[in-house]
Amino acid sequence: MRRPMVAGNWKMNGTRASVAELIESLRVQALPVSVEIAVFPSCLHVAQVLGGVDDKHVAVGAQDCAAQNGFGALTGEVSAEQFAEVGCEWVLVGHSERRLVLGETDEVVSRKFLAAQVGGLKPVLCLGETLEEREAGRTLEVVGRQLAQVLDDHGIAAFESAVIAYEPVWAIGSGLTATPEQAQEVHAAIREQLSRQDRQVAEGVRLLYGGSVKADNAAELFSMADIDGGLVGGASLKANEFGAICRAAGN
Ligand code: PEP
């Protein structure tokens, strides 16, 4: 039985004041203990959030980490070890905004996935196709290729402590959500690809859906057999909405 998970990606949002308000509003939410919950603030606000949510069962993650491990001369980067040392548990790897806007290749994403695990973080590996790729009928090929890079480089055992998020690029921040059936088709294909390497590991990996998840569509998405929760962007900045999504995952 896979424990559902809801992750909130706060992206490049927030000031100290607005983050303090969001933490306060999260603290008064009724959050189901059956659901693993994590938030991913900007790296500037990680310490503030860790200090603010520590008596709630909300874990904190980073939105990215360096592909290099440890400490040293790499201006502007933050290593998995540094995030882990301050108390982060998770890190997003390969979010489409990093792949498409910042030019991260499958190979870089794969290196970051390994760096995360070596440095003591659990990666949430993000996969997803663009609208053009979907319209060309290439969704499963693209997502399969993105997953294969990590699977081939690090093996199936690396997925025992990782989560995968399927996030169609056309659904992110657009208000266009994949239908539960569209999302389920891709999730099933991801699990099948993992299963070809090791059935037991594949059955245990949590597959989150991301792309305009909201309180009013979460329950329907989470009811699908291979959707184990959500990676939530915009709606995670509103505590009430995020709380309702977490409760939907717990039902
Ligand atoms: C995301 O960026 O990970 C995301 C899912 O965003 P949104 O929920 O705003 O579509």
Automatic annotation (TrEMBL):
Enzyme class: isomerase
InterPro entries the UniProt entry points to: Aldolase_TIM (IPR013785), TIM_sf (IPR035990), TrioseP_Isoase_bac/euk (IPR022896), Triosephosphate_isomerase (IPR000652), Triosephosphate_isomerase_AS (IPR020861)
A Pfam entry, by short name: TIM
Highest taxon of the lineage: Bacteria
Family classification: Belongs to the triosephosphate isomerase family.
UniProt xrefs under NCBIfam families: tim (TIGR00419)
Protein name: Triosephosphate isomerase
